Amino acid sequence: MLVRVEQVVKHFPAGLGQSVKAVDGVSFEIREGETLGLVGESGCGKSTLARLVTQLIPVTSGKIFLGDVELTRLRGEKLRQQRRQLQMIFQDPFASLDPRMTVGDIVAEPLDNFGVMRGRKRSERVQELLRIVGLNPNFNNRYPHEFSGGQRQRIGIARALALNPKLVVCDEAISALDVSIQAQIVNLLEDLQQKLKLTYLFIAHDLSVVRHISDRVMVMYLGKIVEVADSVGTYSDPKHPYTKALLSAIPVPDPKIQRGRRLVELSGEIPSPIHPPSGCRFHTRCPIARVPTPCAETEPPLEEKVRDHLAACHFSQDV
Amino acid sequence: MTVPILQVRDLRTQFLTDGGIVTAVDGISFDLNPGETLGIVGESGSGKSITALSILRLVPDPGKIVGGEVLFRNEDLLQIADDDIREIRGRDIAMIFQDPQSSLNPVLTTGYQIDEAMLAHGKSKREAHQRTLELLKKVRIPAAESRIKDFPHQLSGGMRQRAMIAMGLSNAPQILIADEPTTALDVTVQAQILELLADLNRELGTAIIMITHNMGVVAGLCSRVIVMYAGQIVEQGPVDQIFEDPQHPYTWSLLKSIPRVDAVRHERLRSIEGIAPDLLRPPTGCRFHPRCPFRIEKCYTDEPTLKEVAPNDMAACWVTMDRARKDMNADELVDIRPGAGSHYRRGELV
Predict the structure, then answer these.
(1) What pLDDT, on the 0 to 100 scale, is given for residue B152?
(2) Could B257 and A255 be called an inter-chain contact, meaning their C-beta atoms sit closer than 8 Å?
(3) What would the pLDDT profile of A168-216 be if each residue is shown by its tens digit?
(4) Is B335 on the interface with A (CB under 8 A)?
(5) Model confidence over B310-335: pLDDT tens digits?
(6) Å from B326 to nearest chain A CA?
(7) Residues 170 to 189 of A: which have CB under 8 A from any B CB?
(8) Which residues of A touch B255 (CB under 8 A)?
């Protein structure tokens, strides 16, 4: 087990004594060497969860462990030292690189921050990093604007790998790229994982990409995890009606198949995370909910429905 | 034989930039049949949106349509007077955009803005108001009677896009051009909007031109597809055929580069090496040749034109996938390089 998240809650103040319940009691584990996918629609709390796991923001309550170390108890320098193990790749390759720094300095910044390498060793490491992400190592003196979106994302990946992290959190790391470039980056991430024994938390709204790259997939809805399973199980045998609806909504690039697919339509809109619905948060839109009992009254626990397949639904057998 | 309602002939649109002239749309021709759903797919910079904007003469500065014809009802839309094109916009050919937030005026109610689209084309206030209500119901906005008075910020992204579609349909146009209408939306909302467009196409017979980068969206909605690359059409034909047996290596690679949610086993994605060309200095010969795994010598120097390479399938390629499969082991081609690829930028090998 590399990361353990226990009952983590993150509330943001929203004025008038109210709060946005962005992440509301979430527990899961990330296994060493796996890719754990995290999907959900906008506002479900997936990016907040990414920031919590990397401890870029503090939890409201709950615990996060990296190995045996409880990150949520650490502050200051001790937390900073742990952060070497936790790196992040961001969505926007244009906004996440400082335009006034050379590529070499960007990639070496983590090394400088922790005073790990200097002089020749440092520049050798930069060249090595550029090489493993498929960039010309002699480009260390160029600036970000000289590179395309896909190449910039490679620079971001090289920077994330500089300190040999254990966990890399990819937060919509390929969403801003063109399809043909997405494939390059997905393949690169897969190769790097094998070569460097990395563990990924891969966050995206595109379930087909998440499913492709992940060993297990976790689905979030309104601050809660509703389903966790291996990527085959999530697709072939979803145990939560939200997952099923999400899957049915993704267009398949095959006209003959796509025409025969039936959309599971969800009624209404995503409710406000300031006042989430009672009981199961999905009950207001769920096609199989029994209201009021139990769905509007009792919150279904996230529990194992079949081996290694967890879902939070009172009627998962009917999905 | 059906008579096309829209014929685009050799359309060329250029942008004058600091670096020189960029030909964003470079001599494209296609027909749109009545009631048809036509998809135009391509990646950023392929010219798909500029094509759509050129049809209605909405190309933003410093862009300029420099050649070609857009024939609608025996008239060349590129030649008619400004007042006449204004009459056609919104009445005969309507357009909806990617971002419904910035397409709506934040200080006017949604209902009023839909009314306006009809007032501009001669309907009375009362008529317009009544029709707006009808339209909002038709695009399935719940509680339309009260929503009609809502300001755009009071609607969700999906609702705003529905309102935009209602506005687009308000004058019962013959053609609706939708430029990435679902790209900013969540997948469940996207699916609803696509269903809505398909229903409207069936019920009202409105022809739809769907501009998108998403092959799945085309597969679900369109009957015919045009694939664009670097300002030109590289392949076009019925969706069933193009998706099943694409003949242009770009179309083929694009389809192989997307992970499918219904895949039964993990297959490595086929990435397309390199990056899209800089249109200030487009490659010689076939524009796709620097990234094409099946290029032959001719591709470096001679520009291929669209020709029928299989029944109903037009492609601009000297090789085509049939030959690549037969002579070049296309199906066994696997990318083994780390993250795949040499990278091109401005013609130099990186």
Answers:
(1) 92
(2) no
(3) 999 999 988 888 889 999 999 999 999 999 999 999 988 899 999 999 9
(4) yes
(5) 888 999 999 999 999 998 888 776 55
(6) 24
(7) 178-188
(8) 253
Task: State how far residue B125 is from chain A, nearest Cα, in angstroms.
Answer: 31
Q: Do A134 and B338 touch (CB under 8 A)?
A: yes
Q: What share of chain B is helix, strand, coil (3-state, %, to 5)?
A: 35, 25, 40
Which pLDDT band, with edges at 50, 70 and 90, does B140 fall under?
confident
Query: Of A85-99, A158-172, B51-65, which gets the smallest average pLDDT?
Result: A85-99
Does B257 contact A at CB distance below 8 Å?
yes
CA distance A160 to A90: 10
Q: Given strand B224-229, what is the order of strands in its sheet? A: B93-96, B175-179, B207-212, B37-41, B224-229, B232-238, B313-315, B307-310
Q: How far apart (Å, rounded) are the C-alpha atoms in residues B299 and B317?
A: 8
Q: How far is CA B96 from CA A33, B164, B210, in A?
A: 45, 6, 10
**Shortest Cα distance, chain A CAs vs residue B267, angstroms:** 8
pLDDT-based confidence at residue B156 (cuts at 50, 70, 90): confident
For the range B109-113, what are the long-range contacts, defined as Cβ-Cβ under 8 Å and sequence gap of 24 or more? B109/B148, B109/B149, B109/B150, B109/B151, B110/B147, B110/B148, B110/B150, B110/B151, B110/B152, B110/B155, B110/B160, B110/B163, B111/B136, B111/B147, B111/B148, B111/B149, B111/B150, B113/B163, B113/B167
Q: What are the residues facing B315 on neighbouring strands?
A: B235, B307
Grouping H, G, I as helix, E, B as strand and the rest as coil, residue A26 is strand
